[in-house]
Specification:
Elements lengths: L48 E9 L4 H12 L7 E5 L10 H12 L3 E4 L13 H9 L12 H17 L16 H8 L5 E3 L3 E4 L6 E2 L2 E2 L6 H17 L5 E6 L7 H16 L3 E2 L2 H7 L7
Parallel strand pairs: 1-2, 1-8, 1-9, 2-3, 7-8
Antiparallel strand pairs: 4-5, 5-6
Length: 294
């Protein structure tokens, strides 16, 4: 499974995320260097917005992802979700049954976005900081953390073609573990996507300034991580009560552990009760205000 942050001190990497009519006269935006903006709660929707995002969607994880969606939609039957799909999860090919399930998800109003190619970091991690970010924080799954630009561009192009061959619309790319190295960021800026995300930002790739938007995400790899997550995530949710966007960034094992499942379900139910409007990530991108990006 892709591993998740444990606190605000986790590594956010670089970010992207949004849609709007592209400006053909403008080159790729250097989103890495842009400072995030803070917007009022009603900037994206009256009463605020929320996004339900399911990571690591692949044949090997689909049973858990489907159970997660079932638990979430029990709160609101029409609740839309953005599913982050991995074409070659840990090197394994896709299956007809999985792709049929994705067709059905699209028909129900969910969105599919690209989430890497294999979800595996292929390069050695050198130095203490790199080992901490790419081996401890994410257990070797930060695929785009250190790729050369050409390799990152190739994987992004493979993912776009994979979606296109299946007739699936594609607006967004979210790097595994939200880790995006500088070379990968340059490749992404030129790859034609509308949005992406990192741990603490939603940044448009069509000229919008990045939005400061922390993820509500759990770490389930060990009991102590699950315990800390159940303390940290509700605290973060309270801190973000006036944020324009609450990002519920969930992973397949978040439905396996009862304490974690109950925690995010309670937070999601509370956000819906407080009038937040559920949006797909592409809808968030469409609603992001355009402004000068220097």
């Amino acid at each position: 499974m892709g591993q998740r942050p444990m606190s605000a001190m986790s590594f956010s990497a670089l970010s992207p995320g949004a849609e709007a009519a592209p400006d053909p006269a403008a080159g790729p935006v250097d989103f890495v260097s842009l400072a995030p903006v803070d917007l009022p709660r009603d900037a994206l929707a009256p009463g605020g917005a929320l996004a339900l995002v399911v990571h690591d969607v692949a044949p090997a994880t689909w049973e858990r992802c489907a159970a997660l969606l079932e638990a979430a939609t029990a709160l609101a039957p029409s609740l839309p979700a953005t599913l982050l799909v991995v074409p070659r999860w840990h090197g394994a090919p896709s299956t007809f049954s999985f792709e049929a399930a994705m067709d059905a998800a699209l028909a129900r109003g969910h969105e599919l976005a690209l989430h890497g190619w294999s979800h595996l970091d292929p390069l050695p991690a050198r130095g203490a900081l790199q080992r901490l970010r790419r081996r401890f924080y994410t257990a070797g799954e930060g695929e785009f953390a250190a790729l050369p630009q050409a390799d990152a561009a190739r994987r992004l192009a493979l993912g776009r073609r994979w979606f296109a061959r299946r007739g699936w619309p594609l607006h967004g790319f979210v790097p595994p573990a939200w880790l995006l190295g500088a070379d990968s960021a340059r490749a992404l800026a030129a790859a034609g996507f509308d949005y992406s995300c990192t741990l603490d930002r939603f940044v448009g790739l069509r000229g919008q300034p990045p939005l400061r938007a922390w993820s509500l995400a759990f770490s389930t790899r060990a009991a102590w991580r699950r315990g800390l997550s159940r303390l940290w995530v509700p605290m973060l949710a309270r801190r973000l009560r006036n944020a324009p966007l609450l990002r519920f960034e969930l992973h397949p094992d978040d439905v396996v552990h009862p304490g974690v499942r109950d925690c995010w379900l309670e937070l999601l139910a509370r956000a819906l009760e407080q009038g937040r409007q559920p949006l797909l990530l592409r809808e968030v991108a469409q609603r992001m205000p355009r402004g000068a990006v220097d």
